[in-house]
Design brief:
30% helix; Alpha-Beta Plaits; alpha/beta; Rossmann fold; 2 domains; 354 residues; 14 strands; binds S-adenosylmethionine
Length: 354
C-alpha cells in the first residue's frame, strides 16, 4: 500500500493528518493524508513507491502530538470470508518482516470497540497462523517489530507493522490506567499518563522521586498534586479553590490562594512545575517559558486547551512562542507533547531545561 496508518482520538483526524503531512513534507516524502471524520485513524499515502517504510523510520513517533500509533500499512484486506479470515490475511503477509508480537485491535470509536471481544478471540488463531508462516517468532519479544491487524468491520482490516523503537507499546496506542480510589479528581490520570509517557522508566527514580519540590498551578481539588505527593514530593499548590483535606493532611502540601500567573517561588529550588489552569493556550505557554528562563523550575508539564476550530495552528503558535522566548534568552530546552488518552480538547506538553 506504501502508506502509513496512524491512530488518533476520534474527532482529531484533521490535526493528525496535518501533522504527518507537515513532517513528511519537511523531509521531502511527498504524499497525501486520507481522513474520515470521527474514524479514529488517518492513512498517509506516499507518492513515491516503497518509501512508507523509510518515512516511518525517520519521522519520530515521540515528536508526533496527535498520533497514538505509527504503523507501516501493507494491506487493506476487505471482503474477508467470515468463515476463513486467516487465509485472506496470510495471502497478504509477503511484505511483513519477522515480528516479535501482535496486536489485533480496532480504532478507538464506539462502533469499532464492539469488535474488541472478537479481536481478543481472533488473536490466538492469527498468532498461530503467522508463526506457522514464519512471520512471527515462536516466543513474544519486544525488540522486534509488532504486527498490527486493525479491524474496521468483521470482514475488513488494515494489516501492517510498527518498529519497537518508534511506536507506542500499548494496544490501540492507549495507556490504560486505573483511577486511584483516594485521588481527589479523575484528572489525576492525566498527570500520571504524562509522567509515564514523557519520563523514561530508567530515569523516573531520579526525576520523579521523593524530596523533590514541585509547584502545581491551578491545583484544586488536587488530582495532579496527588501524583506529586504520592511520589514523596513537597508541593506548593496554587489555586483560589480548595484542596482535598486528605492531601493537606499529608503535611507535604502548602496551599497558596493566589493567581497562578503572578505566583513566584521564594527559592529557585523547584524541580517540577505542573499547570492545569484553564486559560488561553498562548498565555500558559508564555508563562511556562518564563518559569524556565527565570530558572524557577527544571521541568514543566502543562496542558494547552486548544480551540475547536484551529487546534493545530494554535499548537504550532504556542510552540513557536516558547521557542522564540527561550532562544532569545539563550535557554536550551527539550519539548515533547502528546494528545494523551486522558486528554480531551487539550494536549499535554513536557518542557525541560537543557
Ligand atoms: C481543571 S482544574 C484543575 C484540576 C486539577 N489539576 C486536579 O487534578 O484536580 C483548573 C483549575 O485552575 C484554576 N485556575 C484557573 N485560573 C487560575 C489562575 N489564574 N490562578 C490559579 N488558579 C487558576 C481553577 O480554579 C481550577 O481549580
Amino acid at each position: 500500500m506504501n502508506s502509513i496508518l496512524l491512530y488518533c482520538r476520534p474527532g482529531f483526524e484533521k490535526e493528525c493528518a496535518a501533522e504527518i503531512q507537515d513532517k513528511a513534507d519537511g523531509m521531502a516524502f511527498y504524499g497525501f493524508a486520507k481522513t474520515k471524520a470521527n474514524s479514529g485513524f488517518v492513512i498517509f499515502q506516499c507518492h513515491e513507491a516503497g518509501v512508507a517504510e523509510t518515512l516511518a523510520k525517520k519521522v519520530s513517533f515521540n515528536q508526533l502530538v496527535f498520533a497514538r500509533q505509527l504503523i507501516i500499512c501493507i494491506a487493506h484486506i476487505t471482503d474477508m470470508p467470515v468463515d476463513d479470515r486467516i487465509s485472506a490475511i496470510i495471502a497478504n503477509v509477503d511484505d511483513l518482516p519477522v515480528c516479535g508480537h501482535i496486536f489485533v485491535e480496532t480504532a478507538d470509536t464506539s462502533e469499532a470497540k464492539e469488535l474488541s471481544k472478537f479481536c481478543r478471540k481472533f488473536t490466538v488463531p492469527v498468532r498461530q497462523a503467522l508463526r506457522k508462516h514464519k512471520k512471527l517468532l515462536p516466543d513474544e519479544v519486544q525488540n522486534r517489530p509488532t504486527v498490527h491487524l486493525m479491524f474496521t468491520g468483521t470482514d475488513s482490516a488494515y494489516l501492517g507493522y510498527s518498529y519497537s523503537y518508534n511506536h507506542s507499546p500499548y494496544p490501540m496506542g492507549i495507556l490504560r490506567l486505573r483511577s486511584p480510589s483516594d485521588a481527589p479528581s479523575r484528572s489525576t490520570l492525566k498527570l500520571e499518563e504524562a509522567f509515564l509517557t514523557f519520563i523514561p522508566e530508567e530515569e523516573r527514580e531520579e526525576r520523579l522521586t521523593s524530596g523533590l519540590k514541585a509547584v502545581d498551578l491551578g491545583a484544586s481539588p488536587g488530582g495532579w498534586t496527588y501524583q506529586l505527593v504520592r511520589r514523596g514530593m513537597m508541593v506548593s499548590a496554587v489555586d483560589n479553590g480548595t484542596m482535598a483535606e486528605s492531601l493537606m493532611e499529608t503535611g507535604q502540601v502548602r496551599h497558596y490562594m493566589e493567581d497562578g500567573f503572578k505566583f513566584k517561588p521564594s527559592k529557585k529550588n523547584i524541580h517540577w512545575l505542573v499547570c492545569d489552569m484553564i486559560e488561553k493556550p498562548a498565555k500558559v505557554a508564555e508563562l511556562m517559558a518564563w518559569w524556565l528562563i527565570e530558572g524557577y523550575c527544571k521541568e514543566a508539564i502543562f496542558n494547552l486547551k486548544l480551540p475547536m476550530k484551529r487546534r493545530y495552528d494554535e499548537m504550532k503558535h504556542c510552540f513557536d512562542l516558547i521557542d522564540e522566548l527561550l532562544k532569545e534568552n539563550e535557554v536550551r530546552y527539550q519539548l515533547q507533547a502528546k494528545h494523551l488518552y486522558h486528554d480531551r480538547e487539550e494536549i499535554t506538553v513536557h518542557l525541560k531545561r537543557g
